[in-house]
Amino acid sequence: MYENQVEGIFNKILIGTNIFLNRDVLRHDYIPEILPHRDEQINRLAGILAPALNHSKISNIFIYGKTGTGKTAVSKFVLSALENKAREVEPLLKISYINCRLTGTNYRVLADICRSLGIEVPFTGLAVGELFNRILKFLNQQKCSLVVVLDEIDALVRKDEDNNLLYELTRINENLNSNWVGLICVSNDLHFKEFLDARILSCLSEEEVVFKPYLANELYDILLIRVKEAFHNDVIDFSSLKLCAALAAGEHGDARRALDLLRVAGELAEREGIEKVKEDHIRLAQKKIEHDRVSEALSSLPLHSKIVIVVTFLLNNFMPKEGVITGNIFEIYKELCKSIELEPLTQRRVSGLINELDLLGILNARVVSFGRFGRTKKIRLGVSPRTVLDVLSEDEVVGGLFQYIPKCLPKRR
DNA sequence: CCTCCACTGGAAACCTAGGCTC
DNA sequence: GAGCCTAGGTTTCCAGTGGAGG
Fold first, then answer.
1. Which nucleotides in chain C lie closer than 7 A to a protein CB?
2. pLDDT tens digit string along A57-93?
């Protein structure tokens, strides 16, 4: 009899509920067949890449635009079309797609390129130059050309200050014979050019394609197409869709955000057992996405950062008026570490952790000067204390620390 | 105008854990 | 197994600093 019950649940999923027809259509990595309001960019990109089919080297391309403006979708769309065409026409063309923010370091970018070419490499241990040589050797042996897409390249440039990797990549063609390597750099950050060496920049941006944020009516068109594939008929009405587009347009025209809103709103309605997505669902979805983002960020922090958050939380409760400074945090932090028999980090490091948390928006830290009484950072929580308590009290190690009463409460200032 | 606090934040060295080549 | 490479986190050291109080 249980079998029947369970089968019922499975079947429900298989058949689909009365809301979603195909949820995947709303995922970030879904590449639709039609990309509204991006004809200009698609044509530009295709025009620049076309010479590849003729064995000619393509110009390096720089693509700018904020998150959710269609950069990734358009480039993947055009490149997969290129790849298909190249297979028909003969020239050996490989495409490596690298997300620099996920990849993180020079070494791993090269390692990823290697893997996408089918060269096995260890995840650490080799000199960067060695990886370079292996790629060169492979390309020369196979007589094949390569297009590398470096998505979110700003993340990489900030870490690698001399831009060694980019410099080497721009010069790689000097060591190739008739084949070539073309670079497509994609950046979210419009000011990031300033970090680049002028020579590298001029080499990388032989062509530039700019993606402007979507306007509310453009987002609406995008949503309209997806809605037909993602939802059953009449699940979402005109006004909810308008609201969705308007909210996302407020967030610098982010299509990704608009699709998230739609998906989460659908899930909320589904859970309520209602067969219509209403405006309230969209508004709730907005809140839920924000809450989930914070929870996710909090729970995935390293241990010492979590402790720093707990300390800030506690001090915020015990002395809400005074404002918490680095010295306070470090004192209590040491107490907490002792209470769970953990070796504390140095003050320098904790100060660094506070900066990292500030960057994530979990803490707000501001440098202030108390004149005679020194210069330090004033720190407060950047997210609601409720969320901190909810998320971190579930934590095995840190959860118990919320009961702690600081021994030496800092003096008033 | 000078002092001096309580740090800030840069730089470099160090450590661990992996892996290569010879 | 020595001697080299990698990443990533941390410690050590220290010059620099905004501004209240003398």
1. 5-8, 10-14, 16-21
2. 899 999 988 888 999 899 999 999 999 988 887 668 8
Task: Please name the nucleotide lying closest to A369, CA to C1'.
Answer: C18
Which of chain B's bases lie under 7 Å from a protein CB?
A: 3-11, 17-20
Tokens of A398: 């840190």
Nucleotide nearest to A367 (CA to C1'): B8
Residue A30, in any domain of the structure: no
Global pTM value: 0.73
Q: Which tokens hold the place of A412? A: 């008033």
- Residue A100 structural domain: 39-211
**C21 nearest neighbour residue (CA to C1'):** A372
Gap from A163 CA to B8 C1', in Å?
A: 27
pLDDT in tens, A123-147: 776 777 778 888 888 888 888 889 9
Same domain, A136 and A9: no
Residue A282 lies in a domain: yes
Same domain, A293 and A355: no
Q: Of residues 337 to 376 in chain A, which lie within 7 A of strand B by their beta carbon?
A: 347-348, 351, 354-355, 367, 370-376
Say how many domains are in chain A: 3
Residue A386 within any structural domain of the chain: yes
> What b/e readout covers A376-407, taking b as 16+ CB neighbours within 10 angstroms?
bbebebbbeeebbeebbeebeebeebeeeebe
Q: Is A26 contained in some domain?
A: no
* Contacts with A343 (C-beta within 8 Å, 6 or more apart), sequence order: A337
